[in-house]
Structures
1.
Amino acid sequence: MADFLMPSLGADMDEGTVVEWLVKQGDVVHRGDIVVNVETQKGIIEVEIWDDGVIEEFLVAEGEIVPVGTPLARLGPVAGATVVEPATGEKPPAPVEVEVPVATRADAPGAAITPPVRHLAHELDVDVDRLAGTGPRGAITREDVRAAAAPASAPVGERVAVSPLARRRARELGVDLGVLHGSGPDGVIVESDVAAASAGPVELDSTPVLEPVEESPVPPHRETSDRNAEAAAKNAAMRQAIAKLMTRAKREIPHYYLGHQIDMGRALAWLEEENSRRPVAERVLPAVLLLKAAARAIRAVPEVNGFWMDDEFRPSEPVHLGVAISLRDGGLIAPAIHNADTLALPDLMSALRDLVKRTRSGRLRSSEMSDPTITVTNLGDQGVDAVYGVIYAPQVALVGFGKIVERPWAHDGMVGARPVVTVTLSADHRAGDGHTGGLYLAEIERLLQKPEEL
């Protein structure tokens, strides 16, 4: 038996709100399944579970705010998988293959489906019996369910996806769910959407009156104003979280800063040739070359990849590259691309597109928020020449890339205009010194001069 705890989804997170459970009591869950949506100051995050088992009991209800580390649910062993301790001197029994309980499968024979996917299908009114899964061994995935639901995007008044907490609040407040637009994962209407809508016009008392009462018209801008106020409140909460984290980082981390200019002529020429062989939709952006170089350089200089914890540097073998992504309503999140140094450029491009899309639609996963080992920020598309960032504790380094611009450059004994990018490093002086940082920037330059190695 084990407890599933409220995870830490960043150094700035002290507590979280359980928005919606995506599984029910008795469901079988497996490592990596998304089981609950948690709201932090940076938005709603899809939280994965890291143990196999059966949901025996929910310890925290939807809508409750609890500190990091609080037990959220209790897990029990999967039925039939109990290990019997052998008597002294006896040989342990041969391992027995346990059949996966039917709770993890759809009613249709052979259609494997996890509880979170089944829950999503229920919310989107999708009949899983009619779906053909595209996952391993024909398993039905979240993408299969979304694709099946897409043609039936509901007009006003038809069925919409609503969290149980939001549905209860809507009944209490008399809010029509059919006119709301959900801000939760996959467009699900969550409690905050209902709360914002309830600030609108209130139903008149039904007590009869002697003379007719003319209702005051609702200003047409009222609904827009309410949405703007809610967005402003969320942005203010995010700014407070960022302020807390950055203030702590600047106070506790002895930063040192390095900058270096790199000739991008060869890298861009190579990329142009590579892209000419690809369909337009599969072409790789120059920014992805920079990300890959930053990740690969860590193999030569691993001292910049890891965490400063308990007064010592703890290196990380995998390279989970945090990518700073700006949000449309303001604010910043830096989720991770896992094992970025091992991804081919097209795969890294796809991963980046997917991460940006899910970040801006509020569909990040807890693992992407909790385990970046080094962060990269790129402000080149904003016209910035160089950026010297603040380290995300407990990481020990942050890499910055500016705009690729033409500069006077000595090349092959001649001075001419060359495309140049400024790469910077903000690093923790407790974990290393300027020599280490210099080696890391030099390795990034070496890789960009041999882009075929990326």
2.
Amino acid sequence: MPHSSASTRTIQIQVADLASDPPEEVYPISILDAIMRKISNPITLTYSLDGTVDDDTIISNMCTGLQRVMKEYRFLAGCVHEDDNGQSYSKRTRSQTHFTVHVKDLRRTNYPSYAELASRHFPVSELENTDLLAPGFEPFPQLPADGSGIPVTLVQLNLIRGGLIIGLAINHRFVDARGMDNILARWAEHTRSIFHPDGPAPAPFDPSWNDRTPLMANPTIPPVDYRTPAVPSMRWMPDGTAPGAGVEPEQMASQIWYVPASKLKALKALASSTTPPNKGAAAIPDDDDDDDDGSWVSTNDALTALMWRCITRSRLALHGITPESLADDTRPVALMNAIDVRAYVPTTTTTTSNTAAVPSPSPPVSPSGSDSDSDTDPATLPSPTIGVPAAYPGNSVMFSRATLPLNKLLHPTPTPSPASPSPLRPIALTIRHTITHYRHPTLLARALRWISSCPRGGVGSVDMAVDVVLGLDVIATSWRVLRAYERADFGFGGLKALRWASAVFDGYCFLYPTRGAGTGAGADEGVEVYLGLERGCMERLRGDGELAEWVEVRGG
């Protein structure tokens, strides 16, 4: 049985040539970058190695591919700094011409082999592990007193028996999940071309992919009163945002829940209209009226509705809410969704390459009636284009906020019928209507203008308007749009498992992308849901009868 300690080494890759590159490079952040906390997005990516390619060749080629992608997305090689006004930027100095890649060999340790990880469905207990990330990773990093900054990017390549685990962390002020997915795809594309020089060459790099200018503050647009938030999903924090997670690690539990594809289909059917749209059957309730007849919900909407309902129920005891008091408890509870708005966000400057405009949907209808366009006179503002490139790495996320009375969210489950539909239906519809509302370009323009009017351009002064940590609200983010299982093939086989690598926050729920062909997944492979909760709440959730009808625990 292996029992030795891990061996480690570092590899220096050149990311700047002072003979041809400027001695220093500075890359500012955009408005939507500014509202993200100064934390990293830490992930692990697990691969199977069959021994046909030498390990040293794999490491060398991956380092060369990383070197190439860092010369395209140049902010990656810098460190996070802040100016006197608190604005963040990435800066590469004269002394930072090389980037350090860490390599850890775990093959002679007790760390599980690839086969063991695969047999256990790549469990949280092994892969939510900061030892797989480069030294210096901190969940909530603080700027060092010596002025050196916080590394934007950390990379560690972990060799395990029969496999490789990439530990990657990129600061959230510079990328969102889609941005990391784009960078990974580009890194893989470059590396794959080294392994297979006779194969397709990487597509030419388009500078517009890396251009944050369209989402930066426009000085010609007059500010608004930042004390009045433009959208209900965000709030101004006069004392700054909280610096940490708010729950001690020993109080937290993490879990992956798994929903097979066949059950996902049934769950969506349960949350959907009992008849197709416009077929003349049973009337749709008044509160379902939105675009068209308001009947459509997505699979994500249905699954998120289930998780919102069950997670909230698991937290009732924490707040002393009894079944007897619940029936009359109309306090509003919220679901915050992080939604990708690359195709919808308005820009007031032109990118360095043409970006196709996306037709705007119908004017938004506020789910709560609290949003107004009265603070914006379109005649006085620049005419925007719509959308940024799909390969854009920066934050293009808007937070949508759906609210329901607590007793309506947790209404008892009846037997579904046309006259008495599933309680998931109004919840899923609320989620769908809210997402449609919050991704509309008009609302996004109003939000961008408000954020840029806030102190420090929103850095540390804007937060999500949600009571999630030990509260009754829930945050959900769907990574199902990520294409890592399709695109993150470095030349020695496709990705087998994508996992978050550090303890997740209380009440945060991730929908992972579906593991497709070539990952070892079965024909009925569906969606993995990654969730962090306070330990007592997680135990109650594990015993939730409604959740157990649809999901199973994955990994251990």
